[in-house]
Write a structure and sequence with these properties.
The protein has about 500 residues and is mostly helical. Helix content is about 75%, strand content about 0%.
Length: about 500
């Protein structure tokens, strides 16, 4: 464990916090958007240094053990900055179009910049915190900060979605708080000092001595609480409204990483419960059940969606379920689940980028109006088409490979009922979403009037083209060949979940 590199963790919190304050002082929307990109770039540099230190030398610890970065958190941290980096560059163009049309004021820009960077700092806090109580504080902070991003453009629909998100997720996070208290109570049996009772590294070291009954209760509360924030069914009700009403860059971050950060909290608790209960598969069984329910529920709702962003929201419910299922199955399934985290986080922002720009182009996200968009808006219509293909697991994109490995985990374990339900859910999603993807590319648009005024058509820049094709290129490349460094990273991250070093 590296104590001499503890200073690497502090910029991860300080840079976005200072950036959020600076955004409130800037004097034009363009300057705010440029400032956001600059701060995220600086955060990416700090993240790169910290992640390199972890994988080159081992976990990094700071602040008397309250901050801790290991392979699992470093892996998620790298994904966090990838999602925020892509989404921040996209926000420059997305809100730039609105600013030129007079729909993005300085006041709105300042609010966006402060909340955006504040959310980045809160998610980083979740990932680098070793204290489960501080993790809970970070998750609650992400709820409060991201809620106001949903209604960045105020409308009855966005305000309703914001309040639904606040109420449902706050109740969920309250359940997680009870679970955190129960973990502290379970630590009493191990005679840990009060200051160490919620430190994950200390709990891991004495996990067999923790009270198993209290820890089981804690995990149930954690699964319900953080599962609500992660969009796992049946606690997912806030998600379709929030994703559909938020601006496209915000939806991209919600789906690309906010859900992951909540699921990460559950994964942190999993090895503690398994060790305390003798690795009997009790907690992983719950994850398997919740994962299957999420896949089935998402498949049922995807069949009847007419709004592109709501379709993508239910797709997020499905993919969070797939990740939970992979972890629940164990074995190669945990490795596949970590691989799926990366694949989904690369693909889903691209899908929201495309849907958002098409929404600006046509004044609506109605799939009937967007039909044939690949002809009238080749970049974004094509991006939506190909991203939908990747999301439903078309080979050789990387999502196909991670889903195939999860299927293999079910076969290896002999869970043929789980395998059958998993395949049925994926098949329904495949057929339903493929229908929408084909319509988006070659369908005939309806003549329904757009509910919002379309923005003027502008030629796509080289950077916008890169935002579409670079993630797709990565998904294709990793689907065909996995580099050794990525395989080792996934192995180390999954080893922590299964109780390894």
């Amino acid at each position: 464990m590296l104590m001499e590199m503890s200073w690497l963790l502090w910029p991860l919190l300080i840079v976005p916090a200072l950036g959020a304050l600076v955004c409130l002082l800037l004097r034009s929307p363009k300057t705010v958007l440029a400032g956001v990109c600059a701060v995220v770039a600086a955060e990416a540099v700090a993240t790169g240094a910290a992640v390199w230190a972890v994988f080159a030398h081992g976990p990094v610890e700071a602040c008397a053990g309250w901050f801790y970065l290991d392979a699992l958190s470093a892996y998620h941290l790298a994904i966090l900055l990838a999602v925020f980096g892509l989404s921040s560059v996209y926000a420059w163009f997305y809100f730039g179009h609105e600013e030129r049309a007079g729909h993005f004021s300085l006041r709105t820009a300042r609010r966006f910049g402060a909340l955006w960077l504040g959310s980045l700092g809160a998610m980083a806090l979740v990932l680098i915190s070793n204290n489960l109580g501080v993790v809970w504080v970070g998750v609650e902070a992400t709820t409060l900060l991201t809620a106001f991003l949903i209604c960045l453009h105020r409308s009855p629909g966005s305000l309703e979605a914001m309040w639904k998100y606040l109420i449902v997720c706050s109740v969920g996070v309250a359940f997680a708080f009870i679970g955190t208290l129960l973990i502290g109570a379970a630590a009493g049996q191990a005679h840990l000092p009060a200051g160490d009772a919620l430190l994950w590294t200390r709990l891991r070291d004495v996990a067999p001595d923790l009270n198993p009954a209290l820890l089981k209760m804690a995990f149930i509360f954690m699964l319900v609480g953080y599962g609500t924030k992660a969009g796992l069914a049946p606690m997912h009700n806030w998600l379709p409204d929030a994703h559909s009403q938020a601006p496209a860059p915000v939806s991209a971050v919600f789906s690309g990483f906010l859900l992951n950060s909540a699921l990460y909290c559950i994964l942190r608790c999993l090895p503690l419960v398994e060790a305390a209960t003798g690795n009997i598969g009790w907690a992983t069984g719950l994850l398997t059940l919740v994962g299957l329910v999420s896949i089935v529920v998402a498949a049922a709702f995807i069949l009847f969606q007419r709004d592109a962003k709501r379709l993508l929201a239910y797709s997020s419910v499905e993919h969070m379920g797939i990740i939970a299922l992979g972890v629940g199955l164990g074995g190669v399934g945990v490795f596949a689940a970590m691989f799926h985290v990366l694949n989904h986080s690369l693909c889903k922002p691209l899908a929201f980028f495309s849907a958002g720009r098409l929404g600006q182009r046509f004044g609506t996200h109605d799939l009937g109006v967007l039909a044939g968009a690949a002809r009238s808006a080749p970049l974004w219509g094509g991006g939506l088409f190909v991203s939908l293909l990747a999301l439903i697991g078309v080979a050789p994109f990387a999502i196909f490979m991670s889903e195939f490995l999860i299927l293999k985990a079910a076969v290896d374990k002999g869970d043929f009922l789980v395998m059958a339900i998993f395949l049925a859910g994926l098949s329904i999603v495949f057929v339903a979403a493929l229908r929408y993807a084909i319509a988006a590319a070659w369908g005939k648009s309806s003549e329904q009037p757009a509910p919002a005024q379309p923005l003027p058509i502008e030629k796509s820049t080289l950077i916008e083209k890169a935002l579409v094709w670079a993630p797709l290129g990565l998904l294709l490349a990793v689907g065909l060949w996995m580099p050794d460094f990525l395989r080792e990273t996934l192995t180390q991250a999954s080893g922590i979940i299964t109780g390894g070093p």
